[in-house]
Prior knowledge:
The protein has helices spanning 77-80, 85-99, 104-107, 125-146, 177-180, 211-237; strands at 14-18, 26-32, 35-44, 58-65, 111-120, 159-167, 170-173, 185-192, 197-204. It is α+β, with helices and mostly antiparallel strands. A five-stranded mixed β-sheet has the order 1-2-3-5-4. The longest helix is centred in the C-terminal third of the chain and has 27 residues, at 211-237. Helix 2 crosses helix 4 (125-146) and helix 4 runs parallel beside helix 6 (211-237). Helices cover 32% and strands 29% of the residues. The chain has a single domain, classed as GHMP Kinase, N-terminal domain (Ribosomal Protein S5, domain 2), CATH 3.30.230.70. It catalyses: tRNA(n+1) + phosphate = tRNA(n) + a ribonucleoside 5'-diphosphate. This is Ribonuclease PH. Its EC number is 2.7.7.56.
Amino acid sequence: MRPSGRNLSEMRAVSIETxxxxxxxxxxxxxxxxxxxxxxxxxxxxxxxxxxGSGLGWVTAEYGMLPRSTTSRMRREADMGKQGGRTxxxxxxxxxxxxxxxxxxxxxxxxxxxxxxxxxxDGGTRCASITGGWVAxxxxxxxLMKTGQxxxxxxxxxxxxxxxxxxxxxxxxxLDYPEDSEAGVDGNFIMLASHRLIExxxxxxxxxxxxxxxxxxxxxxxxxxxxxxxxxxxxxxA
Length: 238
């Protein structure tokens, strides 16, 4: 029995509310159970120096957790003078995951920055950030297309992410914090809507795993991503 009472292949309740900030070109609040992340997308008519003049666009991301997004208060990273290694790793993951679903030629020489701020954490914050980040990106690109700044849709297909793991010896979908902290195996699966893989992060947290178990987790991840993509499409079409 999972701590939440969910079935092994059952996602947490997912909701995506769009247009939650006034100024960002695209924004949403994604809620996956008790994990809540605010995602905003900002369009800028510039690109990093290493692609300037190439005609290619760029999508990047920043990630952060509010001090009381967890059970005890964390210090703001700005107070410490630098970002932690975990933060840097996650925001790089978000950026390269979102870029995998973008035709950078069609985007043109401009940059879209997706900011993901964790309001409340209960496991799976990076997965929620990627899934919600795509929605914010989609809304921002829609504005570019509506104004005629972009004529060909640069978003190839939705990008979503979900966690899976081995908890109490059983493969489970969409780990919350009690499961994540006790899982023998923990994995994050990032995919296109077509289920083509972008990245898989899997590690044994005290117990090794077999090829068959990995395949079981991949099957669960495909199911979860399918549900998340449906939620994304509902959100952007609303």
